[in-house]
């Protein structure tokens, strides 16, 4: 198919796209650029000549050396190759610092490791652009895939195919049970992934944390219950009659972070910017995870057994630092 003539609006869009294309390619032939944009080689040559006399005038409102784009003219005229040597205004635009770019690249690496992100070429291209566009070379980072990645991929396939799954599950009381579940929904909270599904052992909807699953197997058996057949609660964490109640104190602004654990009708006493309220937990050992997620913020007030379990856990962690070689040298 022969390239079509460009209208005025199309020419502007073409020029705006050509400049970053040339910036991303240190050396490109006229033919390659024409094929990429679907235009004739003469249109590429005309556009390059126009770019080479484009720029931003200086304070005198007259064009001086350095105010225009520039190319290697010998390469262009003798070998039909485009090499952009000077960029105007684009180099002066704000850039990410090396640290900012490294943080963004680390986030993109994490996203690319998730099973649902199949189009990883796009993510790789974006990481490359962040590296080139930073004010300095970003630190080299590598984000390891989570141990739950394989489990997550298997469950996503089961949810899409409406197939039952089986797995060994370690509950909050430290008990192992084999479960057969109709997987209905996958959700994440911070760095943790959860599965909501119909548990055939409990004959009710249950929530399972993926990192507590082992020996996961996808079956060929169709699910018995679909999301429309059951009621999935709005909140991820649902209480039960066996839950234990714990009294805590924390800053008022931090209370929403634990809202899912606060039972309906719980009283909240506020004083001096802090609030006392109760939480429901399946087991006192579950408090350790909540306290670790809000270090120095949550204070467990009671019952005494809950305080002792959290205090012993904190003391054990502190003892590891006391026994370290660094501590001994100090």
TrEMBL record:
<dbReference type="Pfam" id="PF25583">
    <property type="entry name" value="WCX"/>
</dbReference>
<dbReference type="InterPro" id="IPR051534">
    <property type="entry name" value="CBASS_pafABC_assoc_protein"/>
</dbReference>
<protein>
    <submittedName>
        <fullName>Helix-turn-helix transcriptional regulator</fullName>
    </submittedName>
</protein>
<dbReference type="InterPro" id="IPR043839">
    <property type="entry name" value="PafC_HTH"/>
</dbReference>
<dbReference type="InterPro" id="IPR026881">
    <property type="entry name" value="WYL_dom"/>
</dbReference>
<dbReference type="Pfam" id="PF13280">
    <property type="entry name" value="WYL"/>
</dbReference>
<dbReference type="InterPro" id="IPR028349">
    <property type="entry name" value="PafC-like"/>
</dbReference>
<feature type="domain" description="PafC HTH">
    <location>
        <begin position="10"/>
        <end position="132"/>
    </location>
</feature>
<dbReference type="Pfam" id="PF19187">
    <property type="entry name" value="HTH_PafC"/>
</dbReference>
<feature type="domain" description="WCX">
    <location>
        <begin position="245"/>
        <end position="316"/>
    </location>
</feature>
<dbReference type="InterPro" id="IPR057727">
    <property type="entry name" value="WCX_dom"/>
</dbReference>
<feature type="domain" description="WYL">
    <location>
        <begin position="150"/>
        <end position="217"/>
    </location>
</feature>
